[in-house]
Design goal:
Strand content: 15-25%
Bound molecules: phenylalanine
Number of helices: 11
Helix content: 25-40%
Radius of gyration: 42 Å
Strand order of the largest sheet: 1-5-6-10-9-8-7
Structural class: alpha+beta
């Protein structure tokens, strides 16, 4: 931009004006006074001097002076704005405060943790306390006290993970192992305090199983145990049916099938109506319309005797279920390994709603 006025003195001033956009704050204030100052600004003086000029010159020269005045004014105003934005930008470290906020990722409960909490919560409402026990167990608690015969195949090296260490002092003799179920905590609970007993026992268990779509070598269980005078199979059925209605839905159908466990007699397995097809049969329930969710039964007399309780006086029931498997049913997950994979797309999809990518930036 080069302004040509046709007057050498005005051309000089025009050049100065053209340099306004490059001035810093201090220079700008000084230049504004030097050009447009009311007393001695050069353009002000030029305007004042118009009266001394011959008439025709006054017209053209005056017009140019006015042009330069408004150009100077416009450039000064816009340079001042520019510098102000620069100042506020510098104050916040060059960040653009007008940009939309970033969402903070707050994470979500793992689906298995959530299932465990919900199940434990339902039993707590019914008056059950929470108990826990060690993951490294002795053969006695894990098998023998639970009425497994000493040559039971579950105790085989192929089925159970043994530790190459002796039991701690004061613990029963025998090999140490990673517990294969939470049932040994039944024994620990009954030895710790006399009935009435009502506990749920969440925890990890370990089996010498290969990993596939429906098996993990390490998975969670929740055990339940109720022991008191006058407890019957009716209490077991009513409690577990109530649980299924609370956890799945009030209309969920349940059924009990006879089964076998060394530590319960009679024993049963409880199925719930398939949560995917609601009973009509689908690949997930292998066309049966039912899904097995837990094993249960009346505490075996031999187990009560092993913990020095009189089976004539006390009866009880127990159950064991697998929250990993239940999480698959609840969220329609086709492969149990997804629960361990740490794939964020999966975890975000099944995470507690409202927890992932919340709006509280
Ligand atoms: N402990 C059994 C299992 O792991 C489940 C179970 C617990 C069955 C309590 C009956 C009573 O398969």
């Amino acid at each position: 931009m080069t302004v040509r006025t046709g007057f050498p003195d005005l051309d000089q001033i025009a050049e100065r004006i053209e340099r306004v956009p490059a001035l810093d704050q201090k220079q700008l204030e000084a230049e504004e006074i030097a050009l447009l100052g009311r007393k001695s600004g050069v353009l002000t003086l030029k305007a004042k001097s118009l009266g001394t000029l011959p008439l025709e010159q006054r017209k053209t020269y005056g017009a140019k002076v006015n042009e330069l005045k408004s150009l100077a004014d416009a450039l000064i105003v816009s340079r001042r704005k520019e510098l102000q934005v620069g100042v506020s930008a510098a104050l916040v470290g060059g960040e653009d405060l007008t940009m939309p906020g970033r969402r903070r990722w707050v994470g979500a409960e793992h689906p298995v943790t959530r299932v465990v909490d919900e199940i434990v919560g339902i039993f707590r409402e019914l008056g059950f306390a929470v108990a826990t026990g060690p993951e490294v167990e002795t053969e006695w608690y894990n098998f023998l006290a639970l009425n497994f015969p000493a040559d039971h195949p579950a105790m085989d090296m192929h089925d159970t993970l043994y530790l190459d260490a002796p039991p701690a002092e004061g613990e029963p003799a025998g090999r140490l192992l990673l517990r294969t179920h939470t049932s040994p905590v039944q024994i620990r609970t009954m030895l710790a305090a006399p009935p009435p007993v009502r506990v749920v026992i969440p925890g990890m268990v370990y089996r010498n199983d290969a990993m596939d779509a429906s098996h993990l070598p390490a998975f969670s269980q929740i055990e339940g145990l109720a022991v008191d005078e006058g407890i019957s199979f009716v209490d077991l059925k009513a409690t577990l049916t109530h649980f299924a209605h609370r956890f799945f839905s009030p209309a969920t159908k349940t059924r009990f099938r006879p089964s076998f466990f060394p530590f319960t007699e009679p024993s049963a397995e409880m199925d719930v109506e398939c949560q995917l097809c609601h009973g009509s049969g689908c690949p997930a329930c292998k066309g049966t319309g039912w899904m097995e969710i837990l094993g249960c039964g009346m505490v075996h007399e031999a187990v009560l005797e092993n913990v020095h309780l009189d089976p004539e006086r006390y009866t009880g029931w127990a159950f064991g279920m697998g929250p990993h498997r239940i999480a698959l049913l609840r969220y329609g997950v086709p492969d149990i390994r997804l629960l361990l994979g740490g794939d964020m797309r999966f975890l975000e999809a099944v995470g507690r709603p409202g927890m992932v990518g919340g709006d509280d930036a």
